[in-house]
């Protein structure tokens, strides 16, 4: 007996126990609705997806080719369409997640309007987007299953037992569109209590993985902007603990914490770390502070700050902003210390924000981290802030030059130029780009590759293309040829937009609730029938 038939039997027994009061309830219809809604709460989703991530992390540890991927999505519909597309093209969602970008929340979801990525948006908009994404993913389940159930009823009415068995198998083995979300909590939106409270809301909405960065909360910057200010390790570890407590309180015992370090590009700190003895974490943090050695008290001016650093008295360089600066060139060492410290104090995955996509650079840091934590692995931002074309063309140029290959035909500073698009160098750079995720996962410990804000760019690009044609000479043809005809021929389900928005699903529900008296939208006059 199939799982569907089991559900029908169980609900039939419930119905019969009501002594006729549930005569209006059809067990078959109730069973359909149960199977179309696998997750009743966000915590159900968080627990389910945490297990998936843990299994994927173990698979990666055994075989680095088993890396995972995601795209940042700023609206539930965008996330839904991404997962529908993945299932259509690849047959499975395995290894594919969603990323919730704080950048896109700030730029697209704040009630203040578009904002820079500086934690100025409402913190409640983050769990609200998580809930919205999962609402749309659950609706994708209901939408696809509803079509399967309709097909099943047709096959049963036609007496096609082979088709019935096939469809029951598809229903029983249905793969949900619900996948893990790695959710950006920025720097925690305040102190460790504020971080805990927001983390709880995010987990209750369904987040199984929370990404936390080591910047100062109230002066947080985008990872690809200047002026980043980091906090001492003790402050960051308190927030890691806060997120873990939130997971444990809510019963998501295998929730994932992604510890992000911005130290590679952050040259400033707001605080001198507390230190009790030479070599402790505070002392290690302070050892990177820039300053001048002094010989006597006469070298100290009013307002100067002096610390003991590596056994010497050092007058720190403090800026007009009251911030202290780190020694130039210390970023990579600080990254390594940050990562080891985070993993040894409760983090599960790392995020190293870099200024370019360079496998060798990432590997050089990860290899040092793995000397202390052998199974260290990364979530890596394949950022749209990188000029990928120029970066990889310059990397190929440098590699060829080092090999002694003649590169005189190329101007390294101008390799973005269209004149190089058909060149041998450009072709090789595109090959490096195509293989970047595979190579970086093998050589640099990257478990998860994500693009933070790709759908921000795709929305702008597709809208520009449509507007250019529609308001220009193409007129209506711009939409017909550029959008609708492609939807039809490429099998994009949104061509039947009424169906995707839930029209057929709602019709079936109305029939469940009202029987023959249901006023349905999907009759002969519904123009959706033009699309087959």
From TrEMBL:
Active-site residue numbers: 222 (proton acceptor)
Note on cofactor: Can also use Mn(2+) ion.
Catalysed reactions, as listed in the record: D-threo-isocitrate = glyoxylate + succinate
GO molecular function, one term: metal ion binding
Entry binding sites for Mg(2+): 184
Name of this protein: Isocitrate lyase
Signal peptide: none
Coiled-coil regions, chain positions: none
Cofactor(s) required for function per UniProt: Mg(2+)
An example Gene Ontology biological process: carboxylic acid metabolic process
Keywords: Lyase, Magnesium, Metal-binding
CDD domains according to UniProt: ICL_PEPM (cd00377)
Highest taxon, organism lineage: Bacteria
Pfam annotation, one family: ICL
UniProt cross-references to InterPro entries, sorted A to Z: ICL/PEPM, Isocitrate_lyase, Pyrv/PenolPyrv_kinase-like_dom, Pyrv_kinase-like_dom_sf
